[in-house]
Structure formats: C-alpha cells, structure tokens
Amino acid sequence: MSAAPAHSRPGGDPHNLGHGDVPISERGPAPKRIVVAYGFWIFLLSDFILFSGFFAAYAVLAKETAGGPAGRDIFDLPLVAWETAFLLLSSFACGMAAIATTAKSVRWFQVSMAVTALFGAAFLACELYEFVHLIGEGNGPSRSAFLSAFFALVGCHGLHVTLGMLWLTTMMAQVWAKGFRDDIVRRIACFALFWHALDIIWVALFTVVYLLGSAA
Amino acid sequence: MSETDDTLHQEDGAGADRAPGEDEPQSIAEQVRGYGIGLGLAAVLTLASFWALASGLIYGPAIPVALIALAVAQMGVHLVFFLHVTSGPDNTNNVLALAFGVLIVALVMVGTLWIMAHLDHNMMSMGDMIRMQR
Prior knowledge:
The structure holds 2 protein chains of 2 kinds.
Chain A: H1 32-61, H2 71-74, H3 77-102, H4 106-136, H5 145-178, H6 182-215
Helix pairs in contact in A: 1-5, 1-6, 3-4, 3-6, 4-5, 5-6
Chain B: H1 28-54, H2 63-82, H3 92-122, H4 126-133
C-alpha cells in the first residue's frame, strides 16, 4: 500500500471530474465561443434527427415503385461519384478556411471559402441536372412512393446545401467588410460545423439511396 | 462590440472544455495535415464503397453489409478529422450530445423499419399470403 491511487494524486484526476480547484458552481458561464458552438452542435444533432425521419420514410418506401422505375433503373452512379468527390473536396476546403481563420489570414480565408463555394456549386449543379433529367423522363416525385421519398430526402439535403451556400457567401462578405471580429469568427465556426455535417449526411445518403439502391 | 474571448484557441485554464468542431492548439502545418489525413481516408473509403458495388468480387448478399460498414467508418473519419470529436475529457459534453443524437436517430430508423415491416406483413393481401406459403 505504498503508492497512492492515481485519482487521489494532487493534480491527478485525468478526466477532470473535479474541474480544477474552483467548484463547478462557482466557475461562471463558459466562454461565449463554446456556448455558441455547443448550441449550434445541438441544432445539428436535431437536424440529423430530422434527416433520420426522411431516411426512415425512404427505407420503408424504397420498394414501392408502383410499376415505375426502381432505383437501379434511374441512378447514374458516375454522377453520384462526382457529387461525392465535389462535396468531400468542398468540406476539405472549408477546413482550410477554418485554419485560415485561426491564423487570421483574410486572403487565405477568402480563397478557401471561394473554393468551398465552387465545389458546393458543382455539387448542386450535378444534383439539379439529375432532378431535371428524372422529371423530364416522367420520373418526377409524383410517379411513385419510391420517387416521392427519393426527391424528399435528396431534395432536403440539396436544400441544406443551398442554404449553406447563402451562409457561405454571407461569411465571405462579412469577413471582407468587418474582418475577423469575435462574433464573426463564431459564425464561421458554426458554418464550418454545418458544412462538415452536410458531408456526413451525404455519406449516409449516397450509401443508403444510391449504392444500396443499385445493389438491391 | 466589447467581446472579450479574443481567439479561437485561447486557454481557459486547466478545466476548460473544447467547443464543438474546435481543434487542439497546434501549428498550421499540423492542422492542414489533420485535414489531409481525413480527406485521404474519406476518399479511400468512398472509392471502396463504389468498388464494393461495381467490382462484383464481393458475395452479393454481403454487399449491403459491406457498404453500411464502409459508410459508418467514413462518418467516423469525418467526425474525427473534420469535426475534431475526440475522446478527451474536454470533449465530454460534445460526445454525450452526439451519443444522444445517435441514439434518437437509431430509434427512429430501427423503430420505423421494424414497425412498418410488421405492418406490411400483417396487412398482406390474401393473394400475397398464399404466394408466400407456396
């Protein structure tokens, strides 16, 4: 019984359960940067739950084609591969913009955000092409329950990306006009969370809708 | 504006939490490297997904399982390298919120599929029922 257990060492407590010397009730509020990002994190998780509803509806209705085309008849996998690449590169460029923000480099921020926007626009163009193509062939959302669920799910993601593009350009304008002010840096952090989260949803989407739809 | 939390990576003392999406304080080169690793891994996993479907080398009924495993892995890569979710003590709040979100998503998905499959079976027309029993 010579060595004291690790958790009773002074300054031990590796998981910080005691939160240092100051009791948690007397530490005051967390910095605004953390409160804001955490609140947005909760919103993103609720957004995932929204998408889970669309995913569940799609999974239930995927086989209800009402005599119309099934997924493997209409999905264009090379186009989906391009969309995936565009969105992944866009997410990477958004990460570069976040680094430029920590480095306080306006030029690199604007360059990275412009690249993010370009890849995002390329993604949206592919999706728009796909939708117009499908509707033009008579396979619009009113064709079957499967296509209703497909357009609702993929369209909901596309709508998120569209809104993200608006936010993105707003952040570029705000940094251009006002620089890296504290409140603007917090907005950039939230935007980065949003953009990466959309890429995570796209991973689920291309797997469940396009790849599994083509496999079945 | 008299905001005082001046930088993204300020040290708030030993017990400080990390904001969601915030990376640990490190040099720019290290940060870029982190995103680069994430991009590389995500690209490999994406290619593996498309390959698993197209190559025909994987036993047919196993393809959905392989695709879902690859997707979960890629979402993990995104969370770790892009959203900087870690198992560290300063990330506990973020991870717990995420875990709760994943729980609800799983309940909605699994619950819906389970209930609807049963309903589909119970509401089956007589013709389908006879066909199934043949």
